Amino acid sequence: MTQLEAARLGIATEEMKLCADKEGVTPEVIRRGVEEGSIVVIRNNLHNSIVPLAVGRGLRTKINANIGTSQDHADVALELKKVEACAASGADALMDLSTGGDIRSIRQAIMKASPMAVGTVPIYSAAANAMNRRKSIMEMTADDLFQAIEENGEDGVDFITVHCGVTRESVGRIEAQGRLLGIVSRGGSITARWMDYNDSENPLYAQYDRLLEIARRYDMVLSLGDGLRPGCLADATDRGQVQELIVLGELCRRARMQDVQVMIEGPGHVPYYQIEANISLQKSLCEGAPFYVLGPLPTDIAPGYDHITAAIGGALAGAAGADFLCYVTPSEHLRLPNLEDVHEGIMASRIAAHIADIAKGYPGAMEKDALMAKHRSEFNWEGQIELSIDPGRSRSWLERSESAKEEGCTMCGEFCAIKLGKKDAHRQ
Fold first, then answer.
1. CATH node for 63-360
2. In this structure, what DSSP letter does residue 414 have?
3. How far is CA 112 from CA 126, 141, 156, in A?
4. Domain ranges of the chain
5. Does residue 373 surpass a pLDDT of 60?
6. Which letter does DSSP use for residue 120 in this model?
């Protein structure tokens, strides 16, 4: 029985109860959200070593971190260190986006090491296998793709990105309108090229019921991917992106009818003034399904600082109703992220998520900031460190202060406004 099937029968599962306890809500809140599709409970029914993750309306805004090998750099040991970094930095989930090396064994190693929910993009392994066996991605068959999805389910993967909305019609709209940067999603690009080469419809769309059957078997959450997402501001909210979203809304309803949980992936590069509209459009077309966004990034000209760009966009997206933020690292658009990049990306996204939670009125979010203010008024440095997003960095920077043992901050000295205020109060 899937989580959605149980919810429809009025059953609050053990997974729902665990999620409720983490969120500080009743199991009924989770059950009702799963039933209506505004919440997903993420955990493959074979992946019992992790605590399930709830994502959706009324819950804390969650963070995902991407890791994985490339054809040029397939260091499994490094990726396992990234898993540790994700957990230590406070990510809620991670995705293995490996495209190089023995992808299945890498995935299995990551699954074993991860204390959090794990997602994948099965078309990567299907395409890599096709290249190894047939020397061409274009010779990948529909059976190859569905076999890869089945293997992900068998390995315990909790959620999968599937580019079901990349159809001949939606790609045709992009071609008719024109784009500055074309298709920037790897999975979307592979699918579009495969359709053109084979003169066939996307198997994930044409054989969608086959996908639903596999997802239902393992209770894998389908993350309906934005394969036609804009890769630059100039391409944002164009006909191809919107057409894909319309298709995803239809597929979302079909999945729910088969007791399969769904979330929707959203755009990457979007002008600041269009972010709220994109969130509203998704929530309307996809009937309130959880929205999983990459960033968004509201400018294209900040390579090396794209984690900051994404945090700006993510805060607004989260405040507008996005439920799940995919991190962006400083190395985005430049290279494969290292351990420091992973940490920086997660911290930036966590800041954005917290800002969003304050805006959405999530219980306890504003209270943390009030407590930080209290600690500052009392010069309680240890309390400030413990409450901070990144205690390690806070402590390290404080310890660089020459007066750390006495007062801590060296910014103002005797001109500290808080100290002066207290002295004035004392004289009165």
1. 3.20.20.540
2. G
3. 21, 29, 10
4. 63-360, 365-427
5. yes
6. E
For residue 425, count other CB atoms closer than 10 A to its CB: 8
Residue 407: per-residue pLDDT:
61
Residue 16 CB neighbour total at 10 angstroms: 26
What percent of the chain has pLDDT above 90?
A: 89
Residue 91 is encoded by which pair of tokens? 């990510």
> Under the phi-then-psi rule, with left for phi > 0, alpha for psi from -120 to 50, and beta for the rest, what region is 198?
alpha
Question: How far is residue 65's CA from residue 392's CA, in Å, rounded to a whole number?
Answer: 19
Chain-centroid distance of CA 98 in Å reads 16
**What is the predicted pLDDT for the residue at 116?**
98
| Closest by Cα among 222, 202, 356, 364 to 289 | 222
Q: Calculate the average pLDDT of the chain.
A: 95
**Which pLDDT score is estimated for 386?**
96
Residue 408 confidence (pLDDT): 60
Q: How far apart are CA 151 and CA 81, in angstroms?
A: 24
CA-based radius of gyration for the chain: 23
Helix or strand holding residue 25 (H, E):
none
pLDDT tens per residue across span 311-330: 999 999 999 999 999 999 99
Cβ-based neighbour number of residue 115 at 10 Å: 12
Q: How many whole angstroms separate alpha carbon 138 and alpha carbon 81?
A: 34
The residue that leads in pLDDT, 2 or 135, is 2
215 with 147: CB under 8 angstroms? no
Query: By the 8 A CB rule, do 312 and 298 touch?
Result: yes
Full DSSP string of 132-200? HHHS-GGG--HHHHHHHHHHHHHTT--EEEE-TT--HHHHHHHHHH--SS----HHHHHHHHHHHHHT-
Do residues 365 and 354 lie in contact, with contact meaning Cβ atoms separated by under 8 Å? yes
pLDDT tens-digit profile of 197-239? 999 999 999 999 999 999 999 999 999 999 999 999 999 999 9
Query: Distance of alpha carbon 284 from its chain centroid, rounded?
Result: 20
Cis peptide before 115 (omega within 30 of 0): no
For residue 428, the model assigns a pLDDT of 46
